Amino acid sequence: MTAPPGVPHPFADAVKPLVDAMGGEMVAPGQARGDDVVLSWEGEPVVAVRLPHLADSLDHLLADLQRRHGPLPALGRKEKQQVVRILEERGAFSVRHGVETVASALGVSRFTVYNYLNRENAARDDG
Question: What's the Cα-to-Cα distance from 40 to each of 2, 6, 46, 76, rounded to whole Å?
């Protein structure tokens, strides 16, 4: 079931929200580069997904959290701790300069972000 050229395929429509949430880009399978992921339906390539670089993903995550919670620097301490927890679960601190980027976005020091992380890890170890 290949869609005619220029007509969206239902499978591509179905995965678009996921690709958007990851900060990826959908391109035609013929435009796929070596590190793109080509998705097929019933053996036919339908769409290629161009994944973002990790640093771009962190910016995308921060923008998404800001859309959901409002300006990040204006959040209270508990809300900032929750944002740090979410970012840690999503691997934000495995990115080079991740702590600095998050600290800047939250309007806190690196030390504060490390304190939030240590507090979360201690709570997890106790539980």
Answer: 10, 17, 5, 45
